[in-house]
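# step 3/5: fold
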Amino acid sequence: MEQEAEKRLRAEIAEKVKQYYELRFASAPSDPQLVHYAGRVFDEKELQYAVEASLDFYLTESRFAREFERRFSDFTGSAHTFIVNSGSSANLLALTALTSPLLGEKALRRGDEVITVAAGFPTTVNPILQNGLVPVFVDVEVGTYNALPAQIEAAVGPRSRAIMLAHTLGNPIDLDAIGRIAEKHHLYLVEDCCDALGSTYHGKNVGTFGHIASYSFYPAHHITMGEGGAVCTDSPVLARAVRALRDWGRDCYCKGGENGRCGRRYTQQYGELPLGYDHKYVYSHIGYNLKVTDLQAAVGVAQMEKLPAFIEKRKANFRRWEAGFKAWEDQFILPYATPGSDPAWFAYPVTVREGAGFTRTELTDYLQGKGVETRNLFGGNLLRQPAYLSIDKRTVGDLHNTDHIMNATFFLGTYPGLTEAQITYVLRQIADFIKQR
């Protein structure tokens, strides 16, 4: 009887939440003259699932987290998915897993080198430094904004052990060439897919080519939990390392509320602990607590239902920008997909040509005055950022293209909430700006 009453009450609450969504959010008009580069796109389902999780009041990881991980693995094709509290944490876990003692002689050790790029987001590089490893920076190609494979090959040295690269703004790296380099030199490949969920290379999802991959669910990304991320891998050993590192470093792999899943809780000997020490309090890694709440996961479950439509809308918005910018190829270097890829574009990046008659900053300042958000390509050249001026590093060449991107590149949004009227408005503002020059 109590169960039936609870079921009816939950249904009533869900209906009220739907009514609230329609009143508070669904009727909010979009302003064609206020254009964000990104934003959350949701309906009543996200609110209903979040309220349902709050009614469970489990708070930490529970049924929605398990459901999200299952759906995410089904979508990406990865054997193991671990939901975490941010994409930056996902990057940290993905790389730190490669230092796990579970890997034996194959584990990365302090002073080993990881090849990466400076043209990107800091938390692709930070885990390298945070683990006492040495980043080796290579240049990127203007247009794809991804690492040049020839420079990666040139970067390989005696202590090179891994490659960690983002699929920049959703555009896949050259996985054929880079995969061959990694295999030839026995390097781990870490795919930062934080901007690239749904992008494919030769018809296969990015994040499934390397040894381990990371994703972000910040509101600007392809799906959102507000804050959130995931680590995916096909390796059982790396999966065990990620789980331990995420969950305080503990060796136990029982889920919340479970006890003795391994069947050996009080029978084993670990380290110098006494025989039979409780496995739930055995720590095999120097770890963190990077889990999410079930309320966040509930929002993610609702977002996963929308992901295919979100991806198609991003691609369509990219094509609309592409058609508009074709008229200005004398002023801008336009983006293009890596051969063999089909990006679920995070954004539409352009680079102002030398001799265009204006600078990137002049244009973006003008657009800001017209209510249009733009963003630079993240940190530009990270090695010129205050935090990275004195880091231990190695570089290949002079990073000429990276510096050019720092000075001349910006991007516009492709997120699913962007309307055709807003894109038309922005293109009109750019046309007016160019005429004035």
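# step 4/5: annotate
The chain has two domains: 53-295, 307-436.
# step 5/5: archive (pending)
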